[in-house]
């Protein structure tokens, strides 16, 4: 992958696909060459909106397009295994939205397929690629706040979402956990690794999806993480990391922060701010840059968003769903 511009295909035409494409087309070393949807009309409309040359009314045609270097899969997570698997089997590299799949079993199937084919695969966990989140992790890893004792993070939307909305639809993997809870869980695991113990409670809808979920994650060494997600109440989307010698607070939007504050014992608070070019409007381009960097380097995984880390997050989400009793149609029982 040494071409001056890497060629992208966009699979799906919803809101996140539009936001990612808008960021992508601003990058001088990226080119969006094709888009696919389940309907030709939707693909045509998206292509016209963003000036994309080829529009396909089915996913297979995009997967078989040999002019594409990497496909961005932006379907609902209930279709990630099908869509990403189709692309990987056709020899395409893949950036797949989060939650990566419905469960760890499906995630493992995609990872195994990518490793078997020698193709690049990455979860679109843009938070992990954000420069300010990377700075926060570096500070924690360097011992700026001592040994981490606890992590707190929340993500909630006020709604209300009607029963017909995808967030309330079990067939689409609805509920707050996979759509929103994946962020606080991923934030905690970025700093602490995979938990050794999981406890959770939730309020379920009549359809059987979680309207809000709270989980307490236990880690080796005695650290704890408290995570919360909701589709019935707007939260601060804040996060805090407390250590034996200080604390880091992210007051808002912890997965695309514009600033955080480092509190260290015996010192004045220090504020770290994002560069103007790294703000919320441009946050998705960081993961695109990381994908293109990895492809040009001949890597099949990103060190910023490693596949083993994605699998670990999916195991935690499975464990939380096991505790709260959420199952999706046709799904095997989640792992404990």
Q: How does this structure look, described?
A:
By secondary structure, the protein is of the alpha/beta class. It has ten helices and 14 strands. It has an eight-stranded mixed sheet, covered by helices on one side. A six-stranded parallel sheet has the order 3-2-1-4-5-6, sandwiched between helices. Strand 11 and strand 12 form a beta hairpin. Helix 1 packs across helix 9, helix 4 packs parallel to helix 5 and helix 8 packs across helix 10. The longest helix has 18 residues. The protein is globular and about 60 Å long. 51% of the residues are buried. The mean pLDDT is 95.
Summarize this structure as a short list of keywords or feature phrases.
14 strands, alpha/beta, six-stranded parallel β-sheet, eight-stranded mixed β-sheet, 34% helix, 336 residues, 24% strand, 10 helices, single chain, globular
Would you kindly provide a brief summary of this structure?
The protein is of the alpha/beta class. 34% of the residues lie in helices and 24% in strands. Helix 1 (15-24) packs across helix 9 (283-296) and helix 8 (176-192) crosses helix 10.
Radius of gyration: 20 Å
What proportion strand? 15-25%
- Class from secondary-structure proportions: alpha/beta
The 3D shape can be described as: globular
**Secondary structure: helix percent:** 25-40%
Mean pLDDT: 95
Q: Span between N and C termini? A: 40 Å
Largest sheet geometry: 8 strands, mixed
Enumerate the spans where pLDDT stays under 50 for 5 or more consecutive residues.
none
Strand arrangement within the widest β-sheet reads 8-9-10-7-11-12-13-14
Strand elements, count: 14
Number of helices: 10
Query: Order of SSEs, N→C?
Result: EHEHEHEHEHEHHEHEEEEEEEHH
């Amino acid at each position: 992958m040494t071409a001056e511009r890497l060629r992208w295909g966009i699979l799906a035409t919803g809101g996140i696909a539009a936001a990612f494409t808008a960021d992508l087309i601003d990058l001088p070393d990226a080119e969006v060459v094709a888009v696919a949807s389940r309907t030709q009309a939707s693909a045509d409309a998206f292509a016209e909106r963003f000036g994309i040359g080829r529009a396909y009314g089915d996913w297979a045609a995009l997967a078989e397009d040999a002019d594409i270097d990497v496909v961005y899969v932006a379907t609902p997570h209930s279709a990630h295994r099908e869509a990403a698997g189709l692309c990987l089997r056709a020899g395409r590299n893949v950036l797949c939205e989060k939650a990566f799949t419905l469960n760890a079993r499906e995630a493992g199937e995609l990872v195994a397929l990518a490793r078997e084919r020698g193709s690049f695969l990455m979860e679109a966990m843009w938070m992990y690629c954000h420069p300010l989140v990377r700075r926060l992790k570096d500070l924690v890893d360097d011992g700026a706040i001592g040994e981490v004792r606890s992590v707190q993070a929340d993500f909630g939307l006020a709604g209300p979402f009607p029963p017909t909305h995808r967030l309330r639809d079990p067939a689409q993997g609805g509920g707050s956990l996979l759509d929103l809870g994946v962020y606080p869980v991923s934030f905690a695991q970025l700093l602490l690794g995979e938990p050794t113990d999981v406890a959770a409670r939730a309020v379920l809808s009549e359809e059987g999806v979680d309207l809000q979920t709270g989980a307490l994650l236990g880690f080796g060494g005695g650290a704890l993480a408290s995570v919360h997600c909701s589709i019935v109440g707007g939260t601060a989307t804040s996060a805090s990391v407390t250590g034996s010698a200080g604390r880091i607070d992210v007051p808002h939007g912890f997965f695309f922060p514009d600033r955080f504050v480092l509190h260290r014992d015996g010192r004045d608070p220090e504020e770290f701010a994002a560069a103007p070019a790294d703000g919320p409007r441009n946050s998705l381009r960081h993961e695109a840059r990381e994908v293109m960097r990895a492809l040009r380097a001949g890597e099949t995984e990103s060190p910023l968003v490693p596949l083993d880390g994605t699998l670990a997050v999916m195991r935690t989400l499975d464990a939380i769903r096991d505790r709260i009793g959420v199952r999706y149609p046709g799904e095997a029982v989640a792992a404990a």
